[in-house]
Amino acid sequence: MNASFLYIADRGGLKIYRVEDHVPRLLEFFPVDDAKGRWRDHLTDKAGGFPAGKTAGHGNSTAERLRLEAETDMRCLRKIATRLCESLDEHIDVGWSFAAPSELNGAILDGLPDRYRSRLVQSLRADLLNTTEDELATHFDLHAVPNH
C-alpha cells in the first residue's frame, strides 16, 4: 500500500497533505489553540478547588493535579488524534504516512484504533510541521505513490 496522504503534527496543530504526482499538496491546517496563548489565560485561582470530602482537608493540594503543561499536552494530543481520525474516515482504504516529534509520535499513534494503524505506510519521529512541501518529499518515500 502506498501513502496517498501525509499527516504532520506537533503541539501547534496538524497539517494534512494529499500526495499528487509524488509531491505533497497542503489540504488543511488544523491549529490547536491550547498549545499557544498567554499563560494568564490558562492559569486561574481555581487550583485545588475540588471538594475535600472525607480527606480531612488534605484534598485541596495543587500537587494532586497534573501540571498545566501535561494537561495542555493531553488536550492537544486528543484534538490532533480526533482530527486525524476524522480525516482518515473521509479517505477510507488509502495508505497514509505520519510525522510528529518523538515525544508526540507514539502517544498519538498508539491511541489510534487498528483500522487506522493498519493503513499506516510510514511513521517518522521528526518535527516537520514547518517544512516546505518540496522538503517533505525528501523525508517520505513518495516515489511509488500512484497519481490521483
Write out the strand line-up for the largest beta sheet, numbering strands in chain order: 3-2-1-4-5
Helix and strand element order: EEEHHEHHEH
Number of helices: 5
Class by alpha and beta content? alpha/beta
Rounded to the nearest angstrom, the radius of gyration is: 19 Å
Low-confidence region ranges: 144-148
Rough outline = globular
- Domains counted in the coordinates: how many? 1
Largest sheet: 5 strands, mixed
Level-1 CATH class name: Alpha Beta
Which architecture per CATH? 2-Layer Sandwich
Arithmetic mean pLDDT: 81
Features:
Nucleotidyltransferase, domain 5, globular, 148 residues, alpha/beta, Host_attachment_protein, five-stranded mixed beta sheet, 32% helix, Protein required for attachment to host cells, disordered C terminus
Provide structural commentary.
The protein is 32% helix and 25% strand. With 148 residues, it is an alpha/beta fold. The protein has a single domain (3-40, 65-139), classed as Nucleotidyltransferase, domain 5, CATH 3.30.420.60. A 5-stranded mixed beta sheet has the order 3-2-1-4-5, sandwiched between helices. A hairpin with a 2-residue loop joins strand 1 (3-10) and strand 2. Helix 2 packs across helix 3 (102-110). The radius of gyration is 19 Å and the shape is globular. Mean pLDDT is 81; it is low at 144-148. Pfam families: Host_attach (PF10116). InterPro entries: Host_attachment_protein. This is Protein required for attachment to host cells.
